[in-house]
User: Which sequence fits this backbone?
């Protein structure tokens, strides 16, 4: 039975959940419509194609990270260490609870649907910029950039390993290495 009312955010949330669970290619418009309580044809009233819906989902997830994670890097009320800790704890929670839509979709569709790649590149550039901004408070610009790239790549790999092995030690270890690197630079700066 179709629902009485559904809005775009409901569709984006349900789509995000299904794309994370089943992948982009294995999720049909019918699956999404059903999860939203809509008839398949009704979904096209909101989005003209599956690609348009996926682009909106990527932007929706990106918006969440901008507001809830990346913004922490620029919070002057927190120390640099607190910002880094909080940013990665929030990331961990979001990525482990539902999976990494950016990494999954990026790998799955990079060669097939290039329009998604640009959205995903922007997401990762913004994430690295936020991490770099925090590292700039304890390291020179070149080191901060290198550390940001390393940190995001390592964290992404840890999320993947955690999901494959169903063991959060990979995330915990990546987080611990991040904080040790951060502490090492802070101590070196004090000398």
Assistant:
């Amino acid at each position: 039975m179709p629902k009485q009312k559904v809005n775009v955010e409901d569709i984006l949330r349900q789509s995000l959940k299904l794309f994370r669970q089943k992948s982009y290619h294995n999720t049909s418009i019918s699956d999404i419509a059903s999860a939203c309580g809509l008839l398949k044809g009704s979904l096209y009233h909101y989005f003209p194609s599956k690609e348009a819906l996926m682009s909106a989902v990527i932007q929706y997830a990106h918006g969440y990270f901008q507001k809830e994670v990346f913004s922490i890097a620029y919070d002057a009320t927190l120390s640099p260490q607190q910002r880094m800790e909080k940013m990665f704890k929030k990331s961990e929670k979001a990525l482990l609870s539902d999976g990494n839509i950016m990494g999954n979709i990026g790998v799955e569709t990079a060669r097939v649907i290039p329009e998604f790649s640009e959205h995903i590149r922007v997401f990762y550039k913004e994430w690295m910029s936020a991490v770099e901004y925090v590292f700039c408070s304890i390291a020179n610009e070149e080191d901060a950039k290198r550390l940001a790239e390393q940190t995001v790549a390592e964290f992404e790999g840890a999320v993947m390993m955690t999901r494959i092995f169903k063991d959060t030690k990979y995330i915990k270890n990546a987080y611990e290495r991040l904080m040790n690197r951060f502490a090492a630079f802070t101590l070196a700066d004090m000398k």
Observations:
- The mean pLDDT is 89.
- The chain is about 75% helix and 0% strand.
- The domain at 55-190 is CATH 1.10.357.10 (Tetracycline Repressor; domain 2).
- The chain has two domains: 1-48, 55-190.
